[in-house]
Amino acid sequence: MLRQLAARLSLPEAIGLSLSVIAPTLTAAFNITLVVQAAGAAAPLTFAIGTIAIGLVALSFISFGRRLSHAGSAYAYITHTFGASMGFVAGWGLLLTYFGFATGCAALVGNFTATVLQRFGIDIGAAWIGVGAGAVLLAWWLAYRDMRLAGRLMLALEGVAVLGVVGLCIRILLRVQPSAAQSLASFRPAADFGGWTGIGFGLVFTVLSFAGFEGAATLGEETVNPRRNIPVALFGTVLGAGAFFVFVAYCEVVGFGAAGIKDLANSAAPLNDLALRYGSRDFATALDLATATCAFSGVLGGVAAAARVLFALGRVGLAPALAVVHARHGTPTRAISCAALMVGTSFLLWAPFSGAANYYAYLSTIGTLSLILIYIAVGAAEMVEAWRQARRLWATLCGLGPLVLLWALYRTIYPAPEFPGNLWPYVALLWVVAALVVIRLRPAVARAPLPETL
C-alpha cells in the first residue's frame, strides 16, 4: 500500500483550493452586510484594513511554507515549534474548520439551486437537502479521482462566480457614476456608526471573510516545487481576495446609496437586490447560479483540505488506515471518503432542521472560531522561530497578526451573541477537549516526529 502522496499539482490547483475555501462570492453575498452593520459606508475601508491584518497573519504561513511542505499544514508548523501534542490539537482544530466550511457550503448549494429553479416556476421544496447531499457526493468523487481536475475545477468555478459579481459592480458604477465625495465617504470612518469603533467591530467580519486562505498549504506534499508555489498561492489568494472584497464592498455601498446604507445592512441578499435594481431578473438568476457554483467549490475545497489533514494525522498514529494513497489516482482516498462521510452526515442530521442559511451561519462560525485559534498559534510559532534566529523585526511583524486576531476572537464572544450563537464557542472548546481525549487514547500522536517532507 502506498503512503506517499504524488507530487502532481501546480500553482493553479493550489490557488484553486485556497480560493474555494475562502469562497469570495459568498462574502459578497453575506459578509459585506455584516461589515456594513458595524461600520456603515466605511465598509470598504474596513476591508482594506482587514486585508493588511490578514496579510500579517499570512506572513507566518508563507514563512513556514518556504521551510516545510506537509499535508498537515498548521499541524506541521506548530509541531515543529511547540511539539507534537500542540501540533495534534492544531490539526484536530483544522478538521473542525474544514468540516464546518464544507458542510455549510453544501446547504448553500441546495438553497441557491432551489432559488434558481423557483425563477423558472419549479418549487423543489425540501428537495434542496437532496441537492446539498448530491453536492457532497460529487465533491467526494472529484477529490477521490483526480486532484488536478478538482483543483482546476475549483479555480474555474470561483473565477466564473467572481466575474459575475464584478460584472454587476461595473454595471453599478456605470449607472451611478459616483462623485469624488461619495467615493471618499467609503474610505473614512462613518460618524453615524461609531467612527473607528465601528471599524474595529467590522474587522471581526473581515477576518471571517478571509478564513481558509491557508488551504493551499495542505497540498504541500502534492505540489511541484512546493516551497515556491505554496507561498505564492497563499500570498496571491490574500492579495486577490482583499482587492475583490474592497472593490465589491465599495460598489455595494455606492449601489444602495448614502440613504440606503441601513437597507444594505439589513438586506438578506444584497447581490440579488442590486442585480434586480441595476440589471434584470435574468441577471439576478445568473448571479444566484454563480453563487451556487461557488458554494459547490467550497464543498469540494473543504473535503479536499480536511482529507489532507486526516491523512497527516492518520500517518502519525490517529488511524494508520487513513494514511493510504491510491496507487493510480495518487490521492489519500480513504481519508477523502472519511471526510466526505463526516461532512455529509452532519449535513443530513442538522441542516433539515435549521434551514440552509442558518446552518451555513452556524457551521461557518464554529469553524472560524477554531481557525482563529490556529492562526494565533501559527503566528506565535513563527514569532518564536524568528526570535530564536535573532530576527527581531520579523518576530515583531509576525506578532502583530495574532494581536489583531485576539481582538477578533474577543469580539466574537463578548458581548455574548444571542442564542444559539452563544453556544458556538463552547462547541469549539469541546472539540479541543476531544483532541486531548484522543491523545490519551492514541498517545503515539503526541510523540510522533514529523515525517520526512519534500
Describe the sheet with the most strands. Answer: none
Helix fraction?
over 70%
Count of folded domains: 1
Q: Globular, elongated, flat, extended or rod-shaped: what is the shape?
A: globular
What structural class do you assign from the helix and strand content?
mainly alpha
Low-confidence stretches: none
Rg over CA atoms: 21 Å
Descriptors:
Amino acid/polyamine transporter I; 0% strand; 17 helices; globular; mainly alpha; 454 residues
What does this structure look like?
With 454 residues, this protein is mainly alpha-helical. 75% of the residues lie in helices and 0% in strands. The radius of gyration is 21 Å and the shape is globular. The protein starts with 10 loop residues before the first helix and ends in a 13-residue tail after the last helix.
Briefly summarize what is shown.
The chain has 454 residues and is mostly helical.
Helices, strands, pairings?
Elements: H1 11-22, H2 24-39, H3 43-65, H4 74-82, H5 84-119, H6 128-145, H7 147-176, H8 180-185, H9 196-210, H10 226-256, H11 261-266, H12 270-278, H13 281-315, H14 333-354, H15 356-388, H16 392-413, H17 424-441
Helix pairs in contact: 1-7, 1-10, 1-13, 2-9, 2-10, 2-13, 3-9, 3-10, 3-15, 3-16, 4-5, 4-15, 5-6, 5-13, 5-14, 5-15, 5-17, 6-13, 6-14, 7-10, 7-12, 7-13, 9-16, 12-13, 13-14, 14-15, 15-16, 15-17
